Amino acid sequence: MVRITEQLIRKRSEHNELIISTLEELSLHQEDIERIEHIGNWCRDLKILLLQSNLISKIENLQKLKKLEYLNLALNNIERVENLERLESLEKLDLTLNFIGELTSIENLRDNYNLKDLYLTGNPCTDYPGYRDYVICALLQLETLDGSEITRTDRLKVMKDFKANRDRIVQLELAYRIERDEQKIRVAESLREQEKRVKDLDEEERSAQFWQQKSEHCPETRIQMAKYSAKAREKPPTSSLTDSEGAKKRKPILFAECGRPYSLNEPKIKFEFFDEDDRYELNLHVYKYLDTSFIEVDAQPNYIRATIKGRIFQLALKDEIKTHASTCKRSATTGHMLIVMPKLNPQNVNFVPIRNTAYSENVANRSKCEKQQELKGTVDYKNIVKHGKKTEIDEDEIPPLI
Q1: CATH 2.30.38.10 is right for the domain spanning 6-174
Q2: Whole-prediction pTM
Q3: Going by C-beta distance under 8 Å and a sequence separation of 6 or more, which residues neighbour residue 134?
Q4: At 398, is the secondary structure helix, strand, or coil?
Q5: 189 three-class SS
Q6: Which of 41, 309, 321, 388 is a Cys-bridge partner for 341, taking CB atoms 3.0 to 4.6 Å apart?
Q7: At 212, is the pLDDT very low, low, confident or very high (cuts 50, 70, 90)?
C-alpha cells in the first residue's frame, strides 16, 4: 500500500520551491495510493487536487480544504459519493471510471452550491434508466453533466417525474448491491483458487498466468492488476552479462591515447559556450534545486571539467587558459553556473591607443616648420629644370610597353 507522505508531496511541489503549506495545485496521479490522508492538514490552500489513476476506495479527509475548486478522482475504486459537503468552493468534480452504483449518494453534494461540472462517465450508475434526468433534478446548481450542458428546458421537462424516477433508481441500486455482494464472493474464491494453482510457480510464471486469465471488472481485480504491475516495475532488467560484469560500471573515457582530452556530457545538461578573443565563457544549466555541494569544477590548461552528482561534464579547449585566474559563479535564481576562463595567449585583441604627449608635440613642431617654409612671392618656374648638355638615352635600358 502506497501512503501519502510529506516526502511524496514535496516531490510533486517543485513548482512551488518544495513549500507545501502554500501549495495551490497538487498532482498525485498514478501512485497506487489506496487512501486519502494528511493532505487536508498539510496543504490547506489547495485549489486543484489531482488524484486520478490510483486505488482509492473512499472519499475522506478532505473537509479542511475550504479553497478547493477542482477535484479529480477518475480511475479509482470509489463506490459512493460522500464526505464532500464541506468543500464550499468546489466547482468541478471528476469521478470518471469508478464503481459508483449508489447513485442517490450524489444528493450529498446538494450543499456544494458552487458545483458547476460533474463527471460520472464510466460508472455503473450511468446505465440506470433515467440517470441523467435524476441527476439534473437532484443537483439544481449543476451547469454541465458528463460534459453536456444542462439547459433550463431540460430541467423543467424532468422535474415533474423526479419522485417516480428516484423510486425506480433506488430499486436499481438495491439490485446492484446484491449483484455486487455476489461478485465479491466470486472474486474472493477465484483469487484463492488462483493462489493454490500458482503456489509452486516462480514469480514470472505467476505473472504470465495472471495476465492471461479472464477476470471481472471490479475494484478487487484492479488492485490485483496494480500489484502485479508494481512487481514488474521492481523486477531488475534481464542482461546477458554475468553478475560480476554487470556490477562493474562503465568508466567514461576522458582522454585519447595521445593525451588529448575528449568532450563529453554525462549529466546531459544544456550549456552555452562562448569563444571570445581574450577568454572562454561556459554557462552550464545546472538543475535549480541541486545543492552546490554535489558539484565539483576542475579547470586545466586545455580542458574544463564539472562533476555533477558523480556524472562528468568535460569540454576540450583549443587554446590554453589561465587556471589561477579562472572564476566560477552560480546564480541563486536559476541555478545556472557561469565559468570564465581567461586565455593564456589572447589572439586578435584590439588595444585602444593611448595618447602620447611627446608624439603630439613632435607633430605640432613639424607642422610649425612646414608653415615657416611656405613659399612667398612668385615662383620662377622657367628655371626649375636646369638647361645643360643633352644626355643620350640608351634605348636598350627602356623597358618595352605592354
Answers
A1: no
A2: 0.59
A3: 103, 128, 162, 165, 166, 169
A4: coil
A5: helix
A6: 321
A7: confident
